[in-house]
Amino acid sequence: MQPNKLNHNSKPPEGVGGIKSPCGGFRGLISIINYSNTIPFLYGLQSNAELVQQSEFFYHYPAQSVEMLCNNQVDIGIVPVAAIPLIPQGRIISKFCIGARTHVDSVCLCSNVDLPNIQRITLDYQSQTSNMLTKVLCKNVWRINPQFEEGTQGYETANDGTAKVIIGDRALQHKSSFAYSWDLAQEWYKAFGKPFVFACWVANKDIPQDYLQLFEQALSYGVAHIDDAIAYNNTPKTFDIYSYLHNAVSYEFDEEKQEALRFFYQLAEKM
Q1: Roughly how many angstroms between the first and final C-alpha of the chain, as a whole number?
Q2: CATH number of 28-101+196-269
Q3: Among residues 25, 76, 118, 167, which is most buried (max CB within 10 A)?
Q4: 107-192 — its CATH code?
């Protein structure tokens, strides 16, 4: 069955998470990050006819997904790991994630001056994890103490003299316009020898086991068929999407990544 393409601006009404389907079973409301790194997940989810019948999909950037879960407007979302403790009853429900082994390409600190000369950093309004990772690296690795500012829409191209944290497709599109850019996953790996986890699938309530099994099967199918997912997505990119999804993004939330996530939380707590 071909997946259905959905409105990327879809937003559920408030307080409708965990509704019942017409057949009396659980109907899951799922928030999906609207970045290229979720193309395999989306393909897998929308290719599973049984799951599609029991679900509704909505598209957000990471911080919006957190908000939807906190407000019980969705049941499941892929959210920045730094925000998971903020979600009431939040729990990781999948063995899949958005992560990186040694580099990721799409989460960067971009600047027109070298690291020792950076005095101000504009943070990305779309994701808490990348911002916290930047702060961890500034303190523990780069040994710099810049001022941090909150970015707003369009900050990526503002000529304001600040270094900028940029994530997702926007990083892949804009980083070449800066004199310097640092891949945050690569900087983390060079410093600590560990992979990094940017986002996990999280639920804000108990999800029926049969639904979770369908959900996990769908994610597994998508990750196993990345080329098919790219072909289905059929959206022109300004970067090599095949290399990005096969060689940069790492989807398995394995024991090594779980340990790395615990280590990141330890460092973040000291900030």
Answers
A1: 48
A2: 3.40.190.10
A3: 76
A4: 3.40.190.10
Q: With cut-offs at 50, 70 and 90, classify the pLDDT of residue 120.
A: very high
Q: Order the strands of the 120-123 sheet from edge to edge.
A: 147-150, 120-123, 163-167, 107-111, 180-183
Sign of CA dihedral 81, 229, 104, 194: positive
| Cβ contacts of 252 within 8 Å, gap of 6 or more | 95, 96, 97, 99, 223
Across residues 131-160, what is the average pLDDT? 95
**H/E segment holding residue 200:** strand 196-203
pLDDT of residue 19: 45
Whether residue 21 is predicted with pLDDT greater than 60 in this model: the reply is no
Question: Position 99: which residue type?
Answer: G
Extract the tokens encoding 232.
Answer: 């289905």
Q: What are phi and psi of 23, to 5 degrees?
A: -85, 0
**31-41 residues labelled b (16+ CB within 10 A) or e (exposed):** bbbbbbbbbbb
Report the alpha-carbon distance of residue 156 to residue 6 in Å, rounded.
27
Question: What gap in Å lies between CA 2 and CA 224, rounded to an integer?
Answer: 16
What whole-number distance in Å separates Cα of residue 215 and Cα of residue 207?
A: 10
Q: At what angle do helices 39-47 and 226-233 cross, to 10 degrees?
A: 90
- For 18, the token pair is 């965990």
Residue 163 has pLDDT above 70, yes or no: yes
Q: What is the pLDDT of residue 159?
A: 87
Task: Share the mean pLDDT of the chain.
Answer: 90
Mean pLDDT of 42-59: 96
